Amino acid sequence: MAPPSRRRILPPETLAAFGAAPLFPPTTAAADGSVSAAAQAPPTRNVARAPLAGTSALDGASATSDEAQPTGIIEIAGWRITTRNSSIGDERGMDELTSLLEDFANTSDGIRPDQRKRRLCPPEITFLDAIISFQYQSPKPRDGTAEENRESTTGIRFTSRDALVEWAEAHRHLDMHEDTRQQPTMHRDECQSRGVSILKTADAKVWSEKPQHVDAAAAASGSSEFYYDWTFSSPYAGTVLSTRNNVTGGDINGRSRWKPLQQSHIPFHMLQDTTQQILLYDDIHLYEDDLHDNGDVSLNIKVRAMPRCWYVLQRLFVRVDRVCVRCREARYFCLFDDSDISENGVRVNAIYRDVAWRESSWDALAGLGLPVDPAAWREESAGGGASAGVPTPPLASLLARLPDVPLPDDLPRFSYFDAKE
After folding, report:
1. In sequence order, what are the residues at sequence separation of 6 or more whose Cβ sits closer than 8 angstroms to the Cβ of residue 193?
2. Are 239 and 161 in contact (CB under 8 A)?
3. CB–CB of 127/299 below 8 Å?
4. Looking at the whole model, is its pTM more than 0.85?
5. Taking each helix axis from N to C terminus, what angle separates 160-170 and 91-105, rounded to the nearest 10 degrees?
6. What is the mean pLDDT of each run of 10 residues along the chain (421 residues)?
7. Given 34, 299, 339, 347, which residue has the most CB atoms within 10 angstroms?
C-alpha cells in the first residue's frame, strides 16, 4: 500500500503560461466527473531510470511492485522534473535490496554470498519505486564538431536504494560485533563511519551495565552477524546523474561531483515570495521504520517547482526513545535558464546544496529547553498534543532547536553541482 499522494500540479493551460508543460494528460474525466488514476500516469515501463552512480544499470531503481503509481512529470526551461510515489516493496524486491546492501557493506571482491560476514536488514517500510529526479538536457551544439559535445543529460535523483546504499557502505568501517570495552557514543570517531553508528536502546543500555558472567571467547563465537545501524541513519545527500563524464568506481552516488562553497548560495527570499506560483508540489516518502517499537525513523523529500526555480527539502528524522533525537536535512536549489536576472551571483542551472545535521542525546534535551516526553517527538502527534499540560510545538520547530553536529569530511555544509559542466 502506498502512502496518500500529496502531489499538486497546476492545469496544463496554467503551466503553459509559465513556459512549462506536463508530459502526460493530467486527468481524464468520465461522464460522472470521476478521474481515472491510470489516466494520470504514463505506463511504468516508459519511465526512464538512471543507474546508481558507480554501479551497473541492474542496481538502479527498477520497478518491483505490481501496483503502478501515478507519476508526475513536467518540463520547464530544459529541466524534466519527475516525482513518483510507491507501494511498499514486495518480498522479491526487498530480497534483492538486502543482497545489494550486503554487497556494499562487505568487501565484495572474491566473496561469495555464503561467505559474507556482515548481515543487514533494510527498513521495514521501504518504498522501492519512489523516485524524485531533476534532469537537465543540454542543447546540442550547432557546429556539430566534437563527439563528446553531443546532447547530454545531467541532474540529481533521490531514491530509497541510493540512500540505503550509502548507509550500507559506511558499515565497511564499523566493528563486526560489539566491543564492550568501547561503547559507541553518538559522535565518537572510532565508533562511527560517516555518521553511521550502532546505538543501543535504553533497555539494552541498562542490561549492559549489569554484571555479566560470560566467557569472552563464548561471547565472541555467539556474536550475531546482524550487528548494524538499526536506525538507518544514512549520510545520503542526493545522487548526481550524468550521461557525460560519468563517475565510476568507488564514487557512490557521485559524491565527488559536489564543489564546496564558503557560504550558502540559496536565495531564501525567493522561496518566501508568495507571488510565485507553485507549479508542482510533492512530498515523497522513501523509507520508514518503527525501530522495533523503540522509536521512529523516516526519510522523505519535499519538492517545489516554481516559474523561476525549483527547491527540494530532504529530511531524515530519527527518534530512539530515551536515547537520542536526530535530524539530517539537505536543501537543494536551482535557478532556471530563463530567469531574467541572476540572484546575488547564483549561477543558472547550477544545483546548490546546504546540509545541516542536528542531534541530541535524550539526557541533554531538558538542558536545551526541549521536551523529554517521547510523545512530543512523534510526527503524527507533534503540534496536536500536550506534554505535562503544555501544548507541544510542531515537530519541525523542535528539530530546528537541536544543536548542530559535525558533518563527514567528504560532505561539505555548502556546495554546488553545475548541470552545464
Report:
1. 170, 171, 172, 173, 174
2. no
3. no
4. no
5. 40
6. 80 92 57 36 36 36 49 91 94 95 76 68 95 85 52 87 95 72 44 88 53 44 66 96 57 89 93 91 96 94 95 97 96 80 78 98 96 88 46 83 96 92 70
7. 299
